[in-house]
Structure to design on (589 residues):
């Protein structure tokens, strides 16, 4: 084994060494120097942390991360050989069982179905409240009439418009959820049938995606140990099966991404030779993914562009039809709807999360860094008297004035969405850059506070996954709290309460909890990346998962479990894929 390890180290290429060292440096930095910011709830500073103690910790961690990454390269190469396969009749039977699509689907339906019974019929976060209230006519709460104020959209974008249909949580997903609930109410005078339909759709699509992925990987990966470990990480992870009935954008994207991921493996394994079935599945994965989350368009478009280069001679038409066509159709449709005033345009503040967090931290820590003219310019966009107090290292929503009821409290006003004009944003980037140049330390602290915990596995993520339904969706229409007690009890019973407690307890467990945490799997993914650097086409397999690390970091929340679900869900497949060897592909790039 030692001799084999030495041979593998000697065969590590330059690109692998560069990526290995770079990743280890980044991880070591955030798990040593950056802890001075993170350990204080994000309020700390890195100023004065470059001490001998921190430097020693940084060096030790760099060595450990480097060794871990080298070990994963060793696992990747040595476990890809059949001669190293662990033989066990019991495990072989399990693996063989999951090579059957029908048996796999039935197992997932029954096993996950039983585990999901306490959470019947569906779960969701507050996003669905917005989706419903933008479309339905009968609303269940007074503040629903002020939907623009809960998730603020600048009034210059809404004034004179008769529509309430926004692209805040994806225009097409909003329509799908909202119209389903609306017609459920019109036809049955209840929201429940609509939820049952949406829950069945989510669960069915998830089972289909995971079935296809599990079967394909069980058939095409040689190493039995890795196959069984990967299978267990998929089947028993509550973050995976709970989100199969979650009516939210991120869980729906996860199912599309799992399907997309296995299709990437298929085209890689076949060197570009794909079938009509592959094209239909890829079209479906891309279409649903882009409908689910807006940023999926960029992830899938990047991979599509790469495939045009890699497989242009053998799969040009399939890539154009199955990947570019759904992106084009959805993008053009949205542009037309926005242009016609049917859908409201996105507010520019949504793309400036980290920047506005930095500005708010400057106001909180050192407002004197702003000149009088800069202060006045920014005061047109933000209430500068408030944003310092509203600033939270963990979430950018307070500065954006987001949150039910906040619009009635002037002290909670951060973003001046009622009075801001498009022209007020003209100098924002210039002012931001000027301030950062004057005092980069505060900008660094704000950035570390916002993104750092995503690569520090010792930090327990924010448990922002849904395990119930907002009260706003189970009152009026869904079933009155007094007139339909059986409906009310679906979400208020001892079994459900106990199940929720068990999930949170497992999530916060200092041992098992790591396997559920998005930031743990982000670190594992980063350490795995060098193992995939043997060729560009092989690296492409993990690129979409790696891109989601950056997307998570730019989300409104620090260390959110919800924004890392895509990574959590495909990492068992990445583990199995790591030991797959396509020697012809890797020698030809």
């Amino acid at each position: 084994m030692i001799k084999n390890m030495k041979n593998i180290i000697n065969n590590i290429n330059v690109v692998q060494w560069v990526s290995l060292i770079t990743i280890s440096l980044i991880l070591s930095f955030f798990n040593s120097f950056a802890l001075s910011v993170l350990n204080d709830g994000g309020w700390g500073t890195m100023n004065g942390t470059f001490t001998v103690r921190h430097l020693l910790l940084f060096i030790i961690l760099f060595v450990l991360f480097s060794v871990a990454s080298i070990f994963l390269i060793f696992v990747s190469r040595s476990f890809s050989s059949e001669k190293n396969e662990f033989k066990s009749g019991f495990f072989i039977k399990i693996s063989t069982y999951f090579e059957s699509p029908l048996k796999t689907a039935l197992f997932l339906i029954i096993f996950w179905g039983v585990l999901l019974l306490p959470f019947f019929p569906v779960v969701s976060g507050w996003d669905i409240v917005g989706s419903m209230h933008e479309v339905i006519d009968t609303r269940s709460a007074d503040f629903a009439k002020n939907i623009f104020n809960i998730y603020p959209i600048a009034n210059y974008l809404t004034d004179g418009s008769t529509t309430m249909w926004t692209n805040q949580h994806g225009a097409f997903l909003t329509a799908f959820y909202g119209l389903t609930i609306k017609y459920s109410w019109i036809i049955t005078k209840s929201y429940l049938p609509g939820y049952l339909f949406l829950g069945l759709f989510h669960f069915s699509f998830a089972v289909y995606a995971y079935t296809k992925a599990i079967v394909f990987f069980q058939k095409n990966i040689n190493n039995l140990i890795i196959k069984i470990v990967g299978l267990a990480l998929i089947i028993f992870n509550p973050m995976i099966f709970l989100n199969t009935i979650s009516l939210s954008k991120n869980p729906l994207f996860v199912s599309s991404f799992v399907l997309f991921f296995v299709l990437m493996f298929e085209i890689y394994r076949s060197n570009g030779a794909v079938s009509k079935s592959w094209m239909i599945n890829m079209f479906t994965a891309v279409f649903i993914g882009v409908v689910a989350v807006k940023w999926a368009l960029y992830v899938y478009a990047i991979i599509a562009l790469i495939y045009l280069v890699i497989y242009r001679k053998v799969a040009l038409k399939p890539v154009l039809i199955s990947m570019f066509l759904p992106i084009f159709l959805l993008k053009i449709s949205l542009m037309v709807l926005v242009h016609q005033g049917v859908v409201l345009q996105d507010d520019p503040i949504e793309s400036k999360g980290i920047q506005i967090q930095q500005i708010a931290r400057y106001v909180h820590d050192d407002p004197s860094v702003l000149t009088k003219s800069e202060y006045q310019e920014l005061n047109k966009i933000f209430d500068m008297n408030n944003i310092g107090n509203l600033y939270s290292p963990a979430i950018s929503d307070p500065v954006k004035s987001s949150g039910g009821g906040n619009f009635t409290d002037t002290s909670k006003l951060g973003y001046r969405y009622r009075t801001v004009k498009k022209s007020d944003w003209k100098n924002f980037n210039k002012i931001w850059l000027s301030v950062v140049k004057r005092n980069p330390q505060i900008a660094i602290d704000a950035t570390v506070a916002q993104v750092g915990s995503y690569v520090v596995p010792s930090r327990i993520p924010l448990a922002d996954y849904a395990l119930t339904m907002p009260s706003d969706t189970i009152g009026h229409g869904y079933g009155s709290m007094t007139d339909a007690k059986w409906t009310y009890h679906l979400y208020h019973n001892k079994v459900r309460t106990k199940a929720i407690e068990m999930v949170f307890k497992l999530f916060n467990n200092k041992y098992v909890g790591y396997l559920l945490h998005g930031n743990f799997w982000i670190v594992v993914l980063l350490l795995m990346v060098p193992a995939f650097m043997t060729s560009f086409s092989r690296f492409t397999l993990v690129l979409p998962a790696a891109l989601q690390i950056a997307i998570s970091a730019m989300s409104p929340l620090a260390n959110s479990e919800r924004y890392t679900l895509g990574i959590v869900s495909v990492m068992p497949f990445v583990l199995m894929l790591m030991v797959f060897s396509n020697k012809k592909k890797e020698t030809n790039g």
About this structure: Residues 140-144, 476-483 have pLDDT under 50 and may be disordered.
